[in-house]
Design goal:
By secondary structure, the chain is mainly alpha-helical. It contains ten helices and two strands. The chain has a two-stranded antiparallel sheet. Helix 2 packs antiparallel against helix 3, helix 2 packs across helix 6 and helix 9 packs across helix 10. The N and C termini lie far apart (about 75 Å). The relative contact order is 0.13.
Amino acid sequence: MTADLFAAALRHDRAIVMAGLVAVILLAWTYLLLGAGIEMEAMDMGGGQMMMMAPEWTPGYAAIIFAMWAIMMVAMMLPGAAPTILLVAKVMRERASAGGAVPGTAALFVLGYVLVWTGFSLAATLLQWGLDRSGLLTDRMAAGSSVFAGAILLAAGLYQWTPLKEACLRHCRSPLDFLLYHWREGAWGAAWSGVRHGLFCLGCCWMLMGLLFVGGLMNALWIGGIALLVLIEKTIPWGGRVVARATGIALAAAGAAMLVAGA
């Protein structure tokens, strides 16, 4: 009877964590699909033609762009991290029943994970500001030339084949191995473990995030396609590796073709 009650409690706990993750992801995607709080400005081009332009960079606009990046990373990266988060919640629930776990450990793990991508979002915001100031981005927040877009595609494709990409991806695909070899005890340990997992995911996916500048940061279909690729790579042990390598070839080929055409 006790074993049945414990099993039921574990299923209930897993359902709560999963529901929370799904709710956060759905809210993030809803925010992005509604425009991420960015109001494009209309510019009269003459002859009755209007062109939508991004606002000028101000502290307020920079804060909106940072929020867009941070929420976009939550929407794109949490689905792939869900298996590890669920495993942490399950293990901590079992340990809590024996009085050996810090309350809120899973939440601290997620906080550490999100902190890494928040830092990345700040760097991405600064990069976007620099690219915009240099005239390398269009008003749709996409690469303004085929040479720039081709360089990003080529770099992303080549990175798919690097040992660093493979090593980081291996950690992301193996939640149990990550907990066995990289888990740290205590509240700070849980948060630091989340940071470590986030760093592995960052090492795996940072160049794929660069592809957002190719299709445009306001292109929901492009964002969704990259998010799906990340999810496949991180959750399918063997198929994900094949997809990562095949995607690398396709991206590099497309990038090289664009560079040749733009030369």
